[in-house]
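Schema walk-through. Below, the input block comes first and the output block second. Nothing else is stored per chain. Lengths vary across the set, and this one has 118 residues.
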Amino acid sequence: MKPAGDPFAEGIELFNRRAFFECHEVLEDLWRPMRGPRRLFLQGIIHLAVGFYHHQQANPPGAERQLRKGLKKLAGYLPEFDGVNTARLYREALVCLEAIVSGHAPEQFPEIHSSSFV
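--- output ---
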């Protein structure tokens, strides 16, 4: 169960429900004032959410660009950061990117798996 009033948990829940635009909005509000390593980590997740939103809107170039940015940022946080299984997220997002680049729809979107809450 996610802690009440936890914007990070809310953002992950939105991501996992495929509400990528809303996820980006929630996490961006958390990200803006943040400093330190968690800022870049959140920015990576935000880029992934925006990339998947672009895919939902039939914008492959925008999806590819944002997914590449997100993967580049997440690469520094493998295999786990802040309770998130970043290695799994990275692998699954990379599979999606490869599908989009080859002109196909991803079979499924990744989910963010976190040990911080269930």
